[in-house]
Amino acid sequence: MNEQEIERLIRISKEHPLLPETYIPWQEDPKADEIFLPELLTSLQGLPVYDTLTTAQKLDLGRHELVQVIYSYGWGGKFVLPVHVAQDAGYSTG
Predict the structure, then answer these.
(1) CA angle at residue 23 from 13 to 46, to 5 degrees?
(2) DSSP states of 20-87 as a string?
(3) pTM of the model
């Protein structure tokens, strides 16, 4: 990748930042069939406290932790640039 391409991608990222929280329907209660993150991947799964959570609380935990995963991945550059490259090329990303 040349310097101009890198500068263009940086500009695109600044003008159109990836905001994972905008992809989550926060205004709605999670539905039982909407799994944002598999239980096995949530931070509390396997701990005694996890068994005290209601199904709605477990779904909401997954929803919040998914956003954190997306942010972590995006800030690592593995998610943001490919999304912006696809958008810049005219492909739909969502």
Answers:
(1) 115
(2) GGGGS-TTSPPPTT--SS-GGGSTTTTSGGGGGS-HHHHHHHHHHHHHHHHHHHHHTTSSHHHHHHHH
(3) 0.56
Residue 85 has pLDDT above 80, yes or no: no
pLDDT tens string 18-58: 676 677 777 777 777 778 888 888 999 999 999 999 988 99
Q: Which tokens is 85 given?
A: 């490259």
Cβ within 8 Å of residue 85, ≥6 positions away:
9
Neighbours of 93 (CB within 10 A): 10
Region 51-74: mean pLDDT is: 84
Which amino acid does the sequence have at 15? E
